[in-house]
Design a protein that fits this description.
mainly beta, five-stranded mixed beta sheet
């Protein structure tokens, strides 16, 4: 027998305790319809009522007693998704072939029911399917739920453009024995029923965290009694769960509390559930695999505040990605760019590996060098500093093994050499960025500690080796990480992860006083504040920030009043087969050419969840000109 984990049991016990005093509302009795169906939906389009249902012979669409369309097949798990006021999508599985069928139903068209997709599913036997329309990320997808511990999320439409072929954009690990799914479209929440054991809540966004939370569980810890065969959500965020045998419909609050339970004695076993809404009355249609008479049950719901879908966020697509890190998990952190002195297409991308060292990639995304020096966190690059008697460029990274500055010398061909370390005396070294003064031409490194301490080191060369000298200390109230310095203006920007962004003067002899210029607001800029980068374009300087808490990026003016110019996400490039980016730590921007496709530079972001397929973290590149085109005018 598959058993719940210790954590699940603990959560279940807590859930049961919360529900012990919950008063359940008596539910009304079900009434039979004059329709025999295995799955049944009643929908309203352009003011007219339609009935969509499956039986032993196929799919049928009716308006009252008039049959409008019919499609033959052994269809199971019929689900619908509105496309507007006058059309909708239907999806079902053919039980004999495990093929997915998707139709568009538009009553006003000459052929009301049109097959738009037929596809053999070979990844798993599908036990349920459910649509998700993300208003925020402008994607329409379909979850295919397998009973043996896995699910696929198929992308169907992106930014109002239909894909020629559905694309698997996410694979989920779900419990063995999962039987049903549904998505709360407004909240972006996927519910999965684990047979007669539990109901779980996941995030529906393809780039979201894979974690789950417990909604309900079986007795004695919760109120589930039988195997849950179908789920539906209601406008207020509550959940309907249909138990198979004996047939029972449960109304569960969004916080997991059981509000009511209604027996459906007319069905020996229930498997299908659909809902239609009229004001605050929900009508549930309950059916069985044996295509008995559909049972109708009406529930009067308390009036609730209307929930609005999230506003759309600008979506930009990556056009290149690097090879994945060799290990799975939280490995990569921060990128930097080294520009080739003569040929931009030979430039390189440096990426820190928090487990091993520094990886170097060419402009095709291929790893060309690995330097196993230890656990590096952040890295930055500057140019023109003699080493071993010759002209070299310099990269510096924060080395967490011994809280030092790890130095690299970069020759004219782009090969990196270990150039030694500078001790810092920090307790928990973290973020780092470089600065070259236009006043003194000196090179500096700003490095910070999780305590909020920021130290500034001058890097000197005797022509043979490099040395580091501490010249100044700064402080922010809590943990910082990302930072970036503007060499031309002599300005340092520091991200305080939970609070916002600070501005300091970057010169070594400047005051240590800083100014907090941009605050975490919980909607656009959401903690943690991670990577920071500067971009100069069209006479303007922009500050680009990784808003890790909502998997997005924000572009601000880098001068007061620090106006927000763009809020965006990096989403799936369906043509190139590159997934979007999320949970980003470090980022970098260059507005110098990196060769074909990046003639005006690029935004480079660490992708914390590398999908399509699921593998180690990597870096994604977005052409800078694509970002410039989206900037809001002043």
């Amino acid at each position: 027998m598959f058993q719940l984990s210790v954590l699940s049991l603990a959560l279940a016990a807590l859930l049961s305790a919360c529900q012990a005093g919950t008063e359940q509302t008596p539910a009304p009795a079900a009434q039979a319809l004059a329709v025999n169906a295995s799955h049944y939906h009643e929908v309203q389009l352009a003011g007219a009522e339609y009935q969509l249902f499956t039986d032993a012979t196929g799919l049928q669409v009716q308006q009252g007693a008039t049959v409008l369309s019919r499609y033959n097949g052994a269809f199971i798990r019929l689900t619908v998704q509105p496309l507007g006021n006058d059309s909708l999508l239907l999806a079902a599985m053919d039980d004999n072939s495990n093929s997915l069928y998707i139709w568009r139903f538009a009553p006003a068209e000459p052929t009301p029911l049109q097959l738009v997709q037929q596809q053999l599913i070979s990844s798993r036997v599908v036990d349920d399917l459910c649509f998700y329309h993300s208003s925020e990320n402008q994607q329409l997808s379909l979850f295919l739920l397998g009973g043996r511990g896995g699910a696929d999320q198929l992308l169907l439409q992106q930014q109002q453009q239909w894909l020629t072929q559905p694309l698997v954009i996410r694979e989920l690990n779900i419990p063995y024995g999962s039987t049903a799914c549904v998505v709360d479209q407004t909240a972006g929440v996927l519910y999965v029923a684990e047979a007669d054991r539990a109901i779980w809540r996941y995030q529906a966004e393809p780039e979201a965290d894979e974690g789950r939370s417990l909604v309900q569980v079986n007795k004695p810890f919760g109120q589930l009694q039988g195997e849950v065969k179908a789920l539906q959500t209601l406008p207020d965020g509550s959940l309907l769960a249909l138990e198979e045998q004996p047939a029972r419909l449960l109304l569960i609050n969004s916080d997991g509390q059981l509000r009511s339970a209604a027996a459906v004695p007319a069905l020996a076993g229930a498997s299908g559930l659909a809902v239609s809404m009229r004001n605050n009355t929900a009508t549930a249609y309950i059916s069985s695999e044996d295509a008995e008479a559909v049972q109708q049950l009406s529930l009067t719901l308390p009036l609730a505040n209307e929930r609005s879908p999230k506003a759309a966020i600008t979506q930009l697509q990556p056009t290149l990605q690097t090879e994945a890190a060799s290990q799975r998990g939280d490995v990569m952190d921060d990128p930097a760019v080294w520009h080739h002195p003569l040929k931009s297409e030979l430039s390189l991308i440096l990426g820190t590996d928090k487990r091993a060292g520094l990886d170097v990639y060419n402009m095709q995304g291929k790893r060309v060098q690995q330097l196993s020096v230890g656990r590096l966190n952040n890295v930055d690059v500057r140019y023109g500093l003699n080493w071993q008697g010759s002209a070299y460029d310099i990269a510096v990274a924060s080395l967490r093994d011994d809280n030092s500055l790890q130095l690299f010398a970069i020759d004219s061909s782009g090969k990196l050499h270990n150039a030694g370390n500078v001790a810092t005396g920090m307790d928990d070294i973290y973020g780092l960025c470089m600065y070259q003064s236009t006043q003194s031409n000196k090179h500096y490194v700003f490095v910070n500690d999780k305590s909020g301490l920021i130290q500034q080191y001058r890097i000197d060369s005797d022509g043979t080796a490099w040395q580091g000298t501490l010249v100044r200390s700064l402080q922010v109230p809590s943990q910082p990480e990302g930072c970036v310095a503007d060499d031309q203006s002599g300005t340092l920007f520091v991200g305080e992860e939970d609070a916002g962004i600070w501005r300091f003067a970057a010169e070594a002899d400047a005051t240590a006083n800083g100014e907090k210029i941009i605050l975490v607001d919980g909607s656009t800029l959401v903690d943690d504040v991670e990577g920071l980068a500067l971009a100069k374009a069209g006479g303007q300087t922009y500050l680009v920030v990784s808003s890790q808490g909502n998997d997005s990026y924000v572009v601000y003016d880098a001068v007061a009043p620090y106006s927000m110019r763009l809020h965006f996400r990096v989403s799936t490039n369906t043509q190139l087969g590159i997934d979007g980016s999320s949970e980003t730590d470090g980022l970098e921007v260059t507005t110098r050419s990196l060769g074909p496709g990046f003639e005006q530079g690029a935004l480079i972001v660490q992708d914390g969840r590398n999908r399509m397929p699921e593998q180690g973290q990597n870096l994604k590149l977005v052409p800078w000109q694509h970002i410039v085109q989206q900037l809001k005018p002043l």
